[in-house]
Design a protein that fits this description.
Layout: H1 2-6, H2 12-19, H3 22-30, H4 34-41, H5 45-51, H6 54-81, H7 83-104, H8 110-129, H9 138-148, H10 150-153, H11 159-166, H12 169-188, H13 196-244, H14 246-249, H15 251-254, H16 264-290
Helix pairs in contact: 2-16, 4-5, 6-7, 6-12, 7-13, 7-16, 8-13, 9-13, 11-12, 12-13
């Protein structure tokens, strides 16, 4: 699930559904509330652990941390060396997710079509208005953390994909993660020296992580209520939103400066990697339907 949260287009929520622990995930997230804090500060650690389903959440957190710090190193190299092909994979992942969302939806009527068109307009609008550069403002980074948790609670919508729209995907899930990992290692190994940039990135990741923790309890509870009262309308809006947002993921739009013009060979490779992204999502869907 941690790997899925890191890759745009693959929702961690979808992986939770496929592997059969989505209901337990939502149940556990909703328990991270004021009552849990009260139990903790009263020293009732056993009751606190049982209330929040601590064993499950601990296993989930360790898996996410492990995947973030391993996959981020690979993505750091890949985005630097083959940016066109990496974004082609991301585009294929999101395109396939959008197709599957549309295929699996069976409640089309005038109202849901209007919601889908609204989502489409928002997606296209964000594609046009999205920041061209990274935003390191701490308040904005905290907001990114809150928003990124959506992918864990809403199957079909990727939190990493939302970070792309917000302009901070590479900053927070590649550069900041790697710097934070280096900072943690430096606490044990004093021979490792951190640059000023590393320290700044580590701070950004800490703020991002704080936002994610806030979003887990607050946003997941809100989304759960919306799902209970207007699930069909929400799903229709998401379908339109994901299709509309494909504009910003078009590979040549994400690679602002290519060393040379696109050649036939590079175009063929970009198509290949895009199709690979499509195949990955369809294989996940096939496994889900088989279960």
């Amino acid at each position: 699930m941690g790997i899925a949260n890191k890759i745009p287009g693959v929702s961690g929520g979808i992986v939770a559904v496929v592997t059969g622990f989505y209901r337990e995930l939502i149940f556990s997230f909703q328990r991270l509330n004021f009552k849990a804090v009260t139990l903790l500060f009263r020293g009732r650690f056993s009751a606190f652990w049982q209330y929040i389903n601590g064993t499950f959440l601990c296993a989930l957190l360790l898996g996410i941390i492990a995947s973030y710090f391993t996959l981020s190193l690979f993505l750091d190299v890949a985005l630097s060396t083959y940016p066109l092909y990496v974004w082609a994979v991301f585009f294929g992942l999101v395109l396939a997710s959008a197709i599957l969302l549309f295929r699996n939806y069976d409640a089309w009527n005038v109202q849901t079509v209007l919601f889908a068109l609204t989502g489409l307009a928002v997606g296209i609008g964000l594609s046009v208005l999205s920041p061209s550069g990274q935003n390191t403002n701490l308040v904005y980074v905290f907001f990114c953390g809150v928003v990124s948790i959506v992918g864990m609670t809403l199957p079909g919508l990727s939190g990493s994909f939302l970070l792309i729209l917000l302009g901070n995907y590479t900053l927070l899930l590649v550069d900041a993660v790697n710097a934070f990992g280096k900072w943690v290692i430096s606490l044990v190994n004093t021979n490792i020296e951190l640059s000023a940039q590393d320290e700044n990135y580590a701070l950004l990741f800490g703020v991002f992580l704080a936002g994610s923790l806030v979003g887990i309890s607050g946003l997941s509870a809100l989304i759960h209520r919306i799902q209970q009262k207007a699930d069909k309308q929400l799903q229709a809006t998401l379908i339109g939103f994901v299709f509309g947002s494909l504009f910003i993921l078009w590979p040549t739009n994400k690679v602002s400066s290519l060393d040379a013009a696109l050649t036939i060979q590079s175009t063929i490779w970009a198509i290949f990697w895009g199709l690979l992204g499509v195949v990955i999502v369809f294989l996940l869907d096939y496994y889900e339907r088989k279960k």
